[in-house]
Amino acid sequence: MADVVRLLDGRYPPRTAEQWDAVGLVAGDPDQPVRRVLFAVDPVAAVVDEAVEWGADLLVTHHPLLLRPVHSVAATTFKGALLHRLVRSGVALLTAHTNADAAAGGVADALAEALGLLDTAPLQAAPAEALDKHVVFVPVADAERLVDALAAAGAGQVGQYARCAWTSTGEGTFTPGPLAAPAVGRTGEVTRVVEARVEMVAPRRSRAAVVAAMRAAHPYEEPAFDVLELAAWPGGTGIGRVGRLARPTTLAAFAEVVAAAVPATAQGVRFAGDPDGTVQRVAVVGGSGDSLFDEVRAAGVDAYVTADLRHHPASELRERAEFEAREGRTHPYLVDVAHFASEWPWLAHAARTLESDVAGTGATVETRVSTLRTDPWTGRVASPEPTPTS
Q: Region Disordered: which residues (predicted)?
């Protein structure tokens, strides 16, 4: 279990989740073997039944079961009953929520790919994690041991590559003072040593641990080192995605593409705007996205696909769009899908990625994507056609 959780956390780092969110392993024994993993959007009773009946060892859901603090998980409550059944059946539960929304290969990327968007970029880019560059001068014979120590403390991780370091050699010189206890050289004598310059990057949050590891592994009483704060830049992750269709289409035809790409729900797919309007540049946000209208307008897109659009923000955006269209400015159309439907495409991505990552360790795992429709709405009645008046 611990190895699978580590791989999932590598793809969807818990530290990138929103502060209000609750992600990670909810229930389960880190020492438990994992052979089967079920992916689903919602941790509801029907999904738990599916996990138990299929013999899953781990259930990964997008939405949290325990988002708000609770004071009891007794089986007399519906959430407690679900947890009890999972534990009794040996099924662990892990949540990847807002940490999966923005991640590369996460919810936004999966929805964009399902709609055929090309050349995608984040709608609201998250800043890359603040990094330091650690520069250390060490005798050549001790360089590899020092690199190992810094890597163990969190340095040298670049994407999916670990223990990344750059070294060069040169001559260091120093004169030990009368109270020094030099590992090399003698008190009062000029000492020259062939040293390696070792450079490794590390998250700024790991600075204290990396420096402590360097001091512990370094043979010198007073090692020479620098810690340089690297410039920040926009990262490749973030909320939503913006991309383009391979060829322009109409809003009505694009809405049909959306309907075919996501699971069917009672709501279906709604759109606001001229059915014959042109759509090529598109923004998408999985889940509730009407808080990002300003970013959508700034992106200059033709259409915005998201879920849970509320009446007043959507009405205001549509009125503004119609006004700006008369002024010759951009006018994003709205395409509204069910919350569950907008996030479901990610499950297959997550399942394939986990199988590949596990295979890279020399092991295997079987994955399955739940096709249960966990959208809470179960039916819809169309409004009757208006009666013609004479």
A: 365-390
Could you count the other beta carbons within 10 Å of the beta carbon of residue 208? 9
Domain extents in the chain: 2-99+343-369, 107-126+236-337, 131-229
Q: Is 97 annotated as a binding residue?
A: no
Q: Confirm or deny that 339 is annotated as ligand binding.
A: yes
Phi and psi based region of residue 59 (left: phi greater than 0; alpha: psi -120 to 50; beta: remaining): beta
- Does residue 135 contact residue 154 with C-beta atoms inside 8 Å? no
CATH topology of domain 2-99+343-369: 3.40.1390
* pLDDT tens per residue across span 149-199: 999 999 999 877 999 999 999 999 999 999 999 988 999 999 999 999 999
Which H helix or E strand runs over 334? strand 333-337
Neighbours of 245 (CB within 10 A): 18
Q: Does 21 carry a binding-site annotation?
A: no
> Does 308 show up as a binding residue in the annotation?
no
Read off the pTM.
0.81
For domain 131-229, the CATH architecture is 2-Layer Sandwich (3.30)
Token pair belonging to 105:
């290969």
* Distance, CA of 286 to CA of 100 (rounded, Å): 10
Query: How far is Cα 91 from Cα 55, in angstroms, rounded to an integer?
Result: 8
Instruction: For helices 78-89 and 45-54, give the axis angle rounded to 10 degrees.
Output: 10
Q: In the prediction, which pLDDT does 21 show? A: 95
> The tokens of 382 are what?
């169309």
